[in-house]
Task: inverse folding
């Protein structure tokens, strides 16, 4: 349909001839937006710093005294691991909701194991422990070993009580974790509590 | 940033792009706004886009999408088109252009996009499909429907010329 093509192009040419562009206003608008974006990021960054400063003191434990009901004495290093993962285990896709699973590891109740993540993301040193058959119910919060803090690693039983003091440390791992003493044999799920949800299976024998 | 290169690119392509987009919007003023916005978005990306084989295709795609978004977001197009006679009174000798423009405005936006990209920007059916992310068959069927609708305008001109 050459006529239609010619006519449409002629129409476009006519509108083009009538148009008046302003390159300087394009540059000005683009620069203004860039400045606004930078200013916005600065404000967000400042808010994050203020938030972090406000949160850190509330999470840091006041003393090294043992936490009530903790199956692992918090002022005592747990016994050496029976079996541990020392290298970064590969992530495997598993299940819905983007849940990823670490390679499983076997240990004893009260034993230590090491969890590491290939993504090397900085995350809080706290992890949740739940039964593999009932993953939605957190049984313990596991606090990984923190360099210079001999009270770590330890586990805190999730009793539903508020006011549990958890270190606010974070790191890229690997994380040395202690299984609670007296934990019945079986499969358990250990999941990150910060950043993307990553879980691993731990078998207590 | 290489401002001079961008300025030259703007001078070379802005008018034509306004012409193309005005066929989508039915309003040159609206088209100028959209094209201006497309170039504003180009500025921070110019270093990268300028290395493309056809940087003008990038700006055109942004402008086409902006036009579609504005159309979808409200009845802006309708309002503008109703305003069109006031700001652009067609010359009686230019009656056909007005008829064609009216007929084009009567097409759904997706069909208008296909028509403009194919007939005005000289993109092949495959290129239009690729640009808009639709199947080639869809492009063909939209072109066919558009030709049927627009043929009335062409017949009007034939009558005038007779």
Result:
């Amino acid at each position: 349909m050459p006529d239609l093509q010619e006519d449409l192009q002629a129409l476009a040419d006519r509108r083009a001839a009538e148009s008046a562009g302003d390159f300087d206003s394009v540059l000005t608008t683009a620069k203004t937006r860039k400045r606004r974006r930078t200013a916005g990021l600065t404000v967000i960054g400042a808010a994050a710093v203020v938030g972090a400063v406000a949160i850190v003191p509330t999470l840091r434990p006041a003393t090294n005294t043992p936490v009530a009901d903790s199956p692992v004495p918090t002022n005592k290093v747990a016994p050496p691991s029976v079996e541990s993962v020392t290298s970064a285990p590969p992530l495997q896709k598993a299940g819905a909701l983007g849940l990823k699973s670490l390679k499983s590891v076997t240990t004893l109740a009260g034993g230590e194991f090491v969890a590491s993540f290939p993504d090397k993301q900085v995350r809080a040193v706290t992890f949740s422990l739940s039964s593999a058959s009932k993953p939605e119910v957190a049984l313990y919060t596991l606090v990984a070993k923190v360099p210079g803090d001999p009270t770590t690693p330890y586990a805190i039983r999730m009793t539903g009580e508020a006011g549990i003091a958890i270190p606010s440390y974070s790191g890229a791992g690997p994380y040395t974790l202690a299984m609670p003493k007296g934990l019945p044999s079986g499969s358990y799920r250990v999941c990150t509590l910060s950043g993307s949800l990553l879980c691993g299976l731990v078998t207590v024998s | 940033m290489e401002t001079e290169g961008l300025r030259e690119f703007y001078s070379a392509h802005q008018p034509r792009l306004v012409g193309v987009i005005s066929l989508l919007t039915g309003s040159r003023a609206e088209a100028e706004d959209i094209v201006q916005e497309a170039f504003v978005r180009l500025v921070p990306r110019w270093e990268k886009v300028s290395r493309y084989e056809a940087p003008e295709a990038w700006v055109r795609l942004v402008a086409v999408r902006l036009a579609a978004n504005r159309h979808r977001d409200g009845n802006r197009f309708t309002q503008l088109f109703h305003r069109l006679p006031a700001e652009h009174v067609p010359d009686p000798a230019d009656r056909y252009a007005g008829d064609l423009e009216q007929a084009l405005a009567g097409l759904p936006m997706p069909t208008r996009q296909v028509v403009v990209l194919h007939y005005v920007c000289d993109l092949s059916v495959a290129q239009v499909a690729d640009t808009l992310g639709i199947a080639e068959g869809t492009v063909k069927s939209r072109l066919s429907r558009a030709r049927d609708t627009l043929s009335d305008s062409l017949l009007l001109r034939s009558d005038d010329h007779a």
Residues 50-66, 76-103 of chain A have pLDDT under 50 and may be disordered. The CA atoms of residues 7 and 13 of chain A lie 10 Å apart.
